[in-house]
Design goal:
By secondary structure, this protein is mainly alpha-helical. α1 runs antiparallel to α2 and α1 packs parallel to α3.
Length: about 100
């Protein structure tokens, strides 16, 4: 049995839903918190913080994926995407690159 108050539990549920990109907008939780006299400002702060967590997690996931891809490209081909390749020109060395 939880020792959290119903209000605190709903705040955590709303934050978790937003932070995890759970389908659904949490409208029922927002409504329930409002009915429990949680201010709009507090609800907005919960949503803001949860979005911040979600966005940081997404950025980190993308960075790790990029690092793995770059390492594999370097291992297989000796190049890393986005870095200049020695002796390569943007369009085969034609004069349009000048």
């Amino acid at each position: 049995m939880s020792t959290l108050t119903p209000i605190l539990a709903d705040m955590i549920r709303l934050a978790a839903r937003v932070a995890s990109n759970c389908p659904g907008d949490g409208e029922c939780l927002i409504q329930r918190l409002s009915e429990q006299n949680v201010s709009a400002e507090h609800i907005a702060e919960i949503i803001f913080l949860a979005r911040e967590i979600r966005d940081r997690a997404h950025e980190r996931t993308q960075t790790l994926a990029d690092e793995r891809t770059d390492a594999r490209m370097n291992q297989l081909f000796g190049i890393v995407p986005g870095q200049p390749v020695a002796g390569a020109a943007c369009c085969g060395g034609s004069t349009c690159c000048n």
